Amino acid sequence: MSMAEAIIVTIVIASTPLLLAALGELVAERSGVLNLGVEGMMIMGAVTGFIASYETGQPIFGILASLAAGMLTASLFAFVTLVLVANQVASGLALTLLGIGFSALIGESYASKPGVRLAQIHIPGLSDIPFVGPILFGQDPLVYVTVALTVGVSWFLFRTRGGLVLRAVGDNHVSAHALGYGVVRVRFLAVLFGGACAGLAGAYLSLVSTSQWLDNMTAGRGWIALALVVFATWLPWRLAVGALLFGAVGILQFHAQALGVRVPAQFLSALPYLITIVVLVLISGNRMLMRSNTPAMLGQSFVPDR
Amino acid sequence: MLKRLMIAGAALGVALTMGVAEAQEKFKVGFVAIGPKNDGGWTQAHWTGVEALQKELGDKIEVTFLESVPEGPDAERAIEGLVQAGNKLIFTTSFGYMEPTLKVAAKYPDVMFEHATGFKTAPNVTTYNARFYEGRYIIGQIAAKMSKTGTAGYIVSFPIPEVIMGINSFMLGAQSVNPDFKLKIIWINTWMDPAKEGDAAKALFDQGVDIITQHTDSTEPLKIAQERGLLGFGQSHDMIDAAPKAQLTSIIDNWGPYYIARTKAAMDGTWKSQASWDGLAEGTVQMAPYTNMPDDVAAAAKEMEEKIRTGAFHPFTGPIYKQDGTEVVPAGQVMDDGSLLTMDYYVKGVDGTPGTN
Amino acid sequence: MRIELIRRPERSAAMAWLSPVIAVVLTLVAGAIIFAANGIDPLQGLYVYFLEPLTLPFTLYELVVKAIPIIIIAVGLALCYLSNVWNIGAEGQLTVGAITGSLLPILFPDFQNVLTLPIMLLMGILGGALYAAIPAVLKSRFGTNEILTSLMLVYVAAYLLDWLVRGPLRDPQGFGFPGSRPFTDFQVMPILFPGSRVHLGLVFALVVVVGAWFILHRTITGFAITTLGQAPRAGAFAGFSRRRMTMLVFLISGGLAGLAGIAEVAGPVGKLEVVISPGYGFTAIIVAFLGRLNPAAIVVAGLVLALSFIGSERAQIVLGMSSQTGRVFQGMLLFFVLACDTFILYRLRFVRTPHAPLARSAE
Predict the structure, then answer these.
(1) Do B194 and A14 touch (CB under 8 A)?
(2) Which pLDDT tens digit goes with each residue over C218-246?
(3) Are the CB atoms for B66 and B6 separated by under 8 Å?
(4) B203 touches chain A (CB under 8 A)
C-alpha cells in the first residue's frame, strides 16, 4: 500500500463510528427527536460489544449485543421523552451520564483485557488492485454495513412512504397526527434505530478501531456525531462527507506532526470543534438550506389530545 | 460479575459511623489514583504495587485505594477523606495532586504523605518518582539497532519535563548507535485514548517508521505494530500478552518495593520526609525480557542495563547539545537531577518543538 | 391496551410535591438493587452513600463547597431554559471565566490589596459572559443552533486552558510543570468557617439565588423570560424581543458560570490548572432541571447532587464501590425526576381502543 492509500484507509476507520452514530441520530432528529444521549448509547454499545465478543470469541456476537444494548438504552430515553413527554435535552444528558457510569460498572473486570479485532475482509483479486483495491475491497465488514446504511437511510427518507411519514412527523406533528399517523410510534422507532446505530458505533470502537474496552473510551465521539448531523443539514450523503472530513482532520493532524509541521497540539485538537462551529454558522446563514431540511419540530414534545 | 478487590467491610462502616475508628490494630494505608485501577497503564502499575504491598504485609495493614479521583478541588477532599477514615500513610499517585496533598498535610501533621512525581516536600510529605529515562536510553539503543529505516516513532501525551526527558534519553541512546537516527513525534494531548493512540501509531507507520515507542498508556500502538509486522516497546508494564511478536521490551513501573519499604518505615517509626528518585538500581524501574531481537542486541541491552544499574553509566552524560547546538553538559560530566526535572528543550537531532512551548 | 396521557385541568399541587419524593424513593430502590448486585448490604450501602455524609462535620462542609459552583451556574441556566434558550456550554464559560479572572494574579502577582479579589471576580464574570455571547450572537444573527455551538465551545475552552497553563501562563518557578503560580493573600477567596474549605462563594450563591428569584417574580424582565419561554408568540405580541432575550440570558448565565469558575480557582483550587472543574457546568444542567428551574428548589437540588458526589466518594472509601456509581445515581435520579414531573401536568389513562385523533402540541 502506498502512503496515500494507507492514509485513506485509516481515515475511513476513524470516520466510520462517527458516521454510524450520526446516521442514527439523523433519523431520530428527522422524526423531531433531539437525543443528546448518543455518547451514552455509544459507550453502552462499546462495553457490551466487547464483553460479548470477549466471552464468545466471536465478534459477531459482540455486534449483536451492541445493537441490543443501544436499542435498550434508547428505549429508556424514548419512554421518558415520548410517552411521558419529559424534556429531551435533560433526558439526553441523563442518558449520557447513565451510560458512562453503567458501562464502567459492568465493564470493570474487562477493562484493558486483550480482545479480538474484527478482521478486514480480503477478496482475492479485487483487494489487490492497485490503489482502489485496499480502499474499496479491503475494509472491515462494518465499513460496508455503514455505506449500505447511508444509502439505505437516504433511500428510506426520500424514496419511501415510511420516510415521508417520518419526515412529516418531524416537520409538523400536529398535522401528521391529524392525518392519522402514530406520531409517538414513529418517533419511538426512529429513536430505537438511533440507539442501534449508536450501539454499533460503540462496538466499532471496541472491536475495530481498537480491540479493548476502557472506561469512557468513546471520549466525546458521541458529541461529535451530534454536531455532524447539523453540519450535514440532516442529509445522509452530506453526513458521509462530514464524517470523512472529521476523521481526516484527526488523522491528518497526526501526519502533519510526524512531518514536523509546527502547530500547537492543543490548537489541532480543538480544530474539529472550531470547524463545526464555522460550518454551523455557514449553513445556518444560508436560510434556504436550513429551512428546507431542518425538522421543524426538533426537540418538541407531542401529546395527542382527545 | 464485579470483582471487589478493595478491602472494606461492614465492621468498618459501623466503626466510621461512631466517629473515626479509634482502636484499630491494623495500620491503614490509603492511595489516591487518577484512573481506574485496571486502566492497563499508570494507575494499574500503582495498583500492582499495592497488591505486592498487601501480599508482603497481609493482615498487618488495611489498604484503601481510591480510583478515578479527578485532579483539582475534589482531590483535596478525597485525601482528607482518607485521613478522616484513619489512614496514617497516604500515597497520592498523580502530579496534579501536589497542592491538595500539601494542603491536607499541613492540616494533619501526624499523618504521613507520599506524592508521586511532584517536586514539593514538607516535614510530613515525601515525593517519589522513578528514573524511567534510564529505560528509555536502553530502548533507544535497541531501536537504532533494530530499525531498518533509521527512524522511530514516538507517541506522547503532554510536554512536561518527564516526557521531554524521556524523548531526549531515547534519542541519546539511539544516537550512540546511529548518529543520524531520526525521530517522528506525535503529541496526542491525552494519557489514554486507545483509538487515538492507534491512529497515531498508524500515521507513524504510514510515514515509514518501523519501530514505535510511547509515553501514553494503552496497548493499542503495540497491537497495531504487531498487526503490521513491525516493532515497538511497552509502557508501564509488560505488554507482551497484547503483542507477543512486536514487543521488544517494556519499561516496567515497579512500585511494589517502594511501597513496601515506605509502609514498613511508617509502621516502625523510621519514616522521614525525602525526595526519592529511584531507578533500575532500586528495582523501581525494570526492563521486561528482551524479545523479538537478535541475541547480540539483547546482550548489549542487558549490558547497558547493568551499567546503568551499577552507576557505571548515566544516560545524560556529556557532551549534550540543545537543538541549536548550545552545549548543556560538557564532555565527561553528568547532568544533575535538577536540570533533568526541569527539562523543557529537545537535544540536538530531535526535530520540532516540545508540544506547544 | 394503550397508555394515554391526559392533561390535567390544572397543575397538580400534590404531584408537584410528591414527584421529587417519588423520584428519590425510586432512585434509592434502584440503588439498593445495584448495591445488592455488587454484593453489598443494600441498607448499609444506602446509609454510607446518602446519610453518613450528613452526619460528619467534614463531609457537611464539603457538601457546601461542592454545591456552591453548581448552584451558581444552575440558577443562570434556569433563566436560560425558562426563556427556552439552550445554553449547555456552561462548562466552557466557567473555564474562560477562570482564565480571565486569573490574568490579574498571574500577570501582576504583586498587585496585592483589597481591590485584587473584586477585580478578579469581575473579570471572571466578564470573561464568562463574553464567551457565552458567542453562541448568543450566532443564534440571534444567523439562527445557529445554540445547543451545538455552546457545547463545541466547551471543548475549545478546555484546549485553550490547557495551552495557557502549559505555555504562556505557566508558573516560571514551577519546574516546567503545567499550572500557574499559586494565588496568595488578597488573591484568594476568604474562608467563612475556619478549618473548612467553605469560602465566600457561599454568599455569592445565596445572593444569586435571591436575585434570580427577585428578577423572575418581581421584574418585567422576569415576566418577559417566562412569557417568551412558554408562549413565544404571546411574548412577541407583548413587545418582548426574542433576540435581546437570548443575548440577555446567555450573558447572565455565562457571567454566573464565569463567577463560579474564578471562585473555584481563587478558592478550593488555588491556582489556574489543567483541570479546574470536574464538570460543574454539566452537573448544573441536571441541577437546573432537578430544581425545576426554580431558584429556591435549585439550592436543594444542588445539595442533593453534591451529596451524590460526596456519597460516591464515601462509598468508595468505606465499601469499595466503583468510582462510577455516582454517575449512575445521578443519571437515574434525573430520569426519575423527569418522568415523575410528567404527572404534575398529566395523568395516565389506560385505554383499550384508540380515540379519534385530534391533536395538539405539548409546548
Answers:
(1) no
(2) 998 888 888 888 777 777 777 788 888 99
(3) no
(4) yes
